[in-house]
Design a protein that fits this description.
The chain is mainly α. It has one domain. About 75% of the residues lie in helices and about 0% in strands. The protein is built from 21 helices and no strands. Helix 18 runs antiparallel to helix 19.
Length: about 425
């Protein structure tokens, strides 16, 4: 009975959000509550919800302040010298331009936001691509690869969701796959080289001058703090080192980092409030999803639904495949981005398959690492289920179908490369 109730909860949840009949936040709260009541699970229901919310609270706080921190750094112009330097170095060589595009996309995606990455990178490079005649499909594809690979950061949506769903710290998932991510970054640069070389063969090298700052609005220029570049860079490096070394909990690192960044770059209290307000929509949306997910996972776990579903799946999975579940999930994680939204996969599917895999000696953290190697990381800039994908193709003015056909094999290749390295380093088990 509990297993059936759990599968119905997940099925209805997926159906509602995939057909857009209900918002993700509402579905995460309403669906499990309704099915718990239908199943007669009324005792301690409130405690289950509260326990779930308490479990995801650190992740929700971390994500909120990570968005605020990197948002402030972006507005203050931390990444501008990097972008400008790359644009000066690449000049009119298509190969260098495509590689530079990948680097800027990856650096821009340090905030974990696809929308901001696309809004920074596409407008900066599009005039240059058009002047030289480089195909826009290459621009969209390379930006997608760079953003997708960097979307594995602990404060990015997939890793944060996986941590929330499994009630763990994001660094427990992220740190062991750092070598795999480095391999993914190198692969993206290699792909950029191949595509850029092809464009250079077609177009040749041209002499050209291009000013990135001419693309900025007056309001954006007024917010820049070029004299504080080294201070901001040092602070950001310190924050990232503190995250990887876990000197403090992730949420505390970003809270302290954000407070310092805000005070240093915008000491005027009125300006501080304006900067926070400008970033508020992203913060509120993501934080609400995480806390709503706490109710979803709290009810499914506290009621025993997840355990019951896992037991039923164990009974039908062949013994020979059980030990390879992590590898199977990793390999298919990128294409699954075309079928599942990040919320539906990480909150609806991951807890069940993780619990099932535990029967074969595979830890839930290993399943989470396998999932984030592609599910809405390398796959999110191709998925029609995310709004940022349409922002990407809209800014680059390319067709979604053309974009998917062009970059799918390279994105899938990124996941395969990272999976191989993750297996070699022991981040996920082969058997």
């Amino acid at each position: 009975m509990l297993a059936l109730l759990g599968f119905l909860t997940i099925a209805i949840f997926l159906a509602l959000i995939l057909t857009k009949r209900m918002s993700v936040i509402a579905a995460l709260i309403v669906v499990p509550t309704v099915f718990a009541l239908l199943g007669g699970i009324t005792a301690d229901l409130g405690s289950m919800m509260l326990e779930g919310i308490t479990g995801v609270a650190p992740t929700g706080i971390m994500l909120a302040f990570a968005i605020l921190y990197f948002g402030i750094m972006n507005q203050a112009g931390l990444f501008d010298p990097i972008i400008s330097s790359i644009l000066k170095l690449i000049k009119g060589d298509p190969t260098k331009i495509v590689i530079g595009t990948a680097v800027v996309a990856m650096v821009s995606h340090l905030d974990g936001s696809g929308a901001s990455t696309f809004l920074i990178t596409i407008p900066a490079f599009l005039p240059l691509y058009d002047k030289l005649g480089i195909r826009r499909i290459v621009l969209a594809g390379i930006v997608a690869l760079g953003a997708g690979t960097m979307n594995l950061v602990p404060w990015g949506g997939p890793t944060a969701r996986a941590a929330s769903a499994l009630n763990t710290d994001a660094t427990n998932i992220f740190n062991p796959i750092i070598p795999a991510i480095i391999a993914g970054v190198l692969w993206v640069l290699f792909v950029a080289y191949l595509l850029g070389k092809k464009e250079r063969k077609r177009l040749g090298v041209q002499a050209i001058e291009y000013d990135y700052h001419s693309e900025l609005t007056e309001e954006e220029k007024a917010l820049k703090r070029p004299k504080l570049f080294w201070v901001n860079l040092f602070l950001t490096i310190l924050v990232i080192v503190a995250l990887v070394q876990t000197w403090l909990p992730l949420s505390i690192v970003f809270m302290v980092g954000f407070a310092i960044a805000l005070l240093v770059n915008y000491p005027n209290p009125k300006v501080q409030q304006e900067r926070i307000t400008s970033l508020a929509p992203s913060v509120i949306t993501v934080s609400m999803i995480i806390f709503a997910a706490g109710i979803f996972t709290g009810i499914l776990s506290g009621s025993g639904m997840i355990d019951a579903m896992a037991e039923s799946m164990i009974s039908i999975i062949p013994e020979s495949l059980g030990g390879t579940m992590a590898v199977i999930v990793a390999v298919f994680s990128m294409p699954l981005s075309l079928l599942f939204t990040p919320d539906s996969f990480y909150f609806g599917v991951l807890p069940v398959i993780s619990q099932t895999a535990s029967a074969y000696g595979i830890e839930s953290l290993e399943m989470a690492r396998a999932a984030i190697l592609g599910q809405m990381t390398t796959g999110f800039p191709l998925s029609p289920l995310t709004g940022s994908t349409f922002l990407l193709i809209g800014l680059a003015e390319v067709d979604l179908g053309d974009h998917q056909r062009f970059i799918f094999k390279w994105a899938f290749g990124t996941t395969i490369v990272m999976t191989i390295v993750a297996i070699i380093t022991g981040a996920i088990p082969l058997f």
